Amino acid sequence: MIVGMKSRLHLLLVFLIGIKSVASQSIVESLPGYAGTLPFTLETGYIGVGENDEVQLFYYFIESENEPTRDPLLLWLNGGPGCSAFSGLVYEIGPLAFDIENFDGSLPSFILNPYSWTKVANIIFLDYPVGTGFSYSNTSKGYPSSDTKSTQHNYTFLRKWLLAHPAFLKNRLFVSGDSYGGYIVPMVALQIAKGNEAGLQPIMSLKGYIIGNPLTDEDSDANEKIPYAHRMALISDKQFEQARSSCNGEYVNPDPNNIQCLFALSIINERTKLINGAHILEPKCKFLSPKPSDSRRFLVDVPVDLLSLSNRNELKCRNMRYATSYVWANDETVREALHIRKGTITDWTRCNKSLSYEYDIESAFEYHQILSDRGFQALVYSGDHDMDIPYMATLKWIRKLNVSLEDEWRAWNVDGQVAGYTEMYKNNQASIIFATVKGAGHTAPEYKPKECLEMIKRWLSLYPL
Questions:
Q1: CA angle 169, 129, 201 (to 5 degrees)
Q2: Do the beta carbons of residue 22 and residue 159 sit within 8 Å?
Q3: Quick one: CA dihedral 145, 148, 151, 156, positive or negative?
Q4: How much is the pLDDT for 8?
Q5: Distance CA 26, CA 378 (A)
Q6: Which of 350, 341, 257, 252 is nearest to 304 (CA)?
Q7: pTM of the model
Q8: Do 392 and 231 contact (CB within 8 A), yes or no?
Q9: Rounded-to-integer distance, Cα 419 and Cα 439, Å
Q10: Catalytic residue numbers?
Q11: Other beta carbons less than 10 A from residue 212's beta carbon
């Protein structure tokens, strides 16, 4: 009787949102590169979005290794735009990581990540927008995307996913991601909130969102790079003061007739050109491919054919380590294990730079303000050695929100050591926790996995950092 009632409820919900087809999903018990059965539950699949389901979004879903029925559900959105969720899974917060030390160019092996966020949460890793990872379109007209379009697709994906997984409808839901996800995460969260208010089914248990090293306003974020470089002793007091005074604190789009400002900026550019923006203490590798002209894309990728495995020192370059994902994801046995549809993606790339994508949202600030006003919780964290999106830029827009400071700047510790610094802001029922992660770069969990797991564990448990 109970099963019958659940089936009728499921059919009713399908009818209510007009789903044309049920999600395609498969449980994956083993993967090439990992010996034996996976010690966690992994599901992969596709969900169609768009007018005629022409866009097929691919996902990896990993159940919590703790209590799946009670632990929160996270939708994880990587940056780029166009960087596969698989990158977040194996290089940041998932339970598997590549054995970099023993990688020789053949199919890489996996090791378990003891600091996976699946220790405390269920996580959907979504390949978005269309053309990212294993997500594809049935028609050429389905490939062009944008901030607003991909947000709508992600929202539709989540509605359909929850209908196909009704057991997770009551789990606390958090939209999460990093880098360019700083734009999309709050947009998706607000879309969910509006859908709930409009009574669209299924009603989602949205509690808040999580963003790391987030891009929020392109010009404002970039404008803090020079003050950050000064604070981190990359430029001198004199060089910074010359730029500050002659440019009036505006460094991104200087007046072309302001010769003093242009000269000051050229000096600073010369002093910092060999600094790795993603992590100022790590080498800027000679094999890095050129950045696209659009400065919003912060995650630089590297072609596999540039990898020289004869020199083991090259693997010390973080970007070169990403070659493991290329080799693995383009292996035919891997695609069979993941249940990838044949003929849909010929060459998998970690970050697709050839997307047809329109950047149609200038700033995500208003989305944060609206979400705060509606009482949602937010965790915003920044690796403090990231110069691409300096923590100072993130803290600056948080302080502009209609919030009041509740907990002043203080250290948060892990195992008796300072793991970073934190502040808490409140607005009625809403709270925003800001945290730096000491020593981390652009995608903080990649550099400090232990500290980041403790951070998310405490925040999800409503425990102070």
A1: 25
A2: no
A3: negative
A4: 42
A5: 32
A6: 350
A7: 0.91
A8: yes
A9: 8
A10: 179, 386, 442
A11: 33
Quick one: tokens of 176?
Answer: 């999460």
The residues facing 62 across adjacent strands are: 42, 123
Place of tokens 């607003």: 148
Given a cut of 50, the residues of the chain with pLDDT beneath it are 1-22, 287-310, 312
Handedness of CA 34, 38, 42, 44 (dihedral sign): positive
In one-letter notation, the amino acid at residue 306 is L
Q: Three-state SS string across the chain, please?
A: CHHHHHHHHHHHHHHHHCCCCCCEEEEECCCCCCCCCCCCCEEEEEEEECCCCCEEEEEEEECCCCCCCCCCEEEEECCCCCECHHHHHHHHHCCEEECHHHCCCCCCCEEECCCCHHHCCEEEEECCCCCCCCCEECCHHHCCEEHHHHHHHHHHHHHHHHHHCHHHCCCCEEEEEECCHHHHHHHHHHHHHHHHHCCCCCCCCEEEEEEECCCCEHHHHHHCHHHHHHHCCCCCHHHHHHHHHHHCCCCCCCCCCCHHHHHHHHHHHHHHCCCCCCCCCCCCCCCCCCCCCCCCCCCCCCCHHHCCCCCHHHHHCHHHHCHHHHHHHCCHHHHHHHCCCCCCCCCCCCECCCCCEECCCCECHHHHHHHHHCCCEEEEEEECCCCCCCHHHHHHHHHHCCCEEEEEEEEEEECCEEEEEEEEEEECCEEEEEEEECCCCCCHHHHCHHHHHHHHHHHHCCCCC
Which domains are assigned to the chain? Answer: 18-218+360-460 (3.40.50.1820)
Nearest to 206 by CA among 75, 118, 89: 75
Distance CA 239, CA 173 (A): 47
- Angle formed by the axes of helices 259-272 and 237-247, nearest 10°: 140
What pLDDT is stored for residue 23 in this prediction?
61
Q: Burial level of 34, CB count in 10 A (0-12/13-18/19+)?
A: middle
- What angle separates helix 147-164 from helix 2-17, to the nearest 10 degrees? 160
Residues 426, 63: Cα–Cα separation, whole Å: 31
Query: Which bin fits 208, alpha (ψ -120 to 50), beta or left (φ > 0)?
Result: left
Q: pLDDT (tens digit, 9 = 90+) per residue, 352-403?
A: 999 999 999 999 999 999 999 999 999 999 999 999 999 999 999 999 999 9
CA dihedral 132, 133, 137, 142 (to 10 degrees): 0
- Residue for token digits 């693995």? 328
> What per-residue confidence (pLDDT) applies to 338?
98
CA distance linking residue 374 with residue 201, whole number of Å: 20
Give the pLDDT of residue 429.
Answer: 85
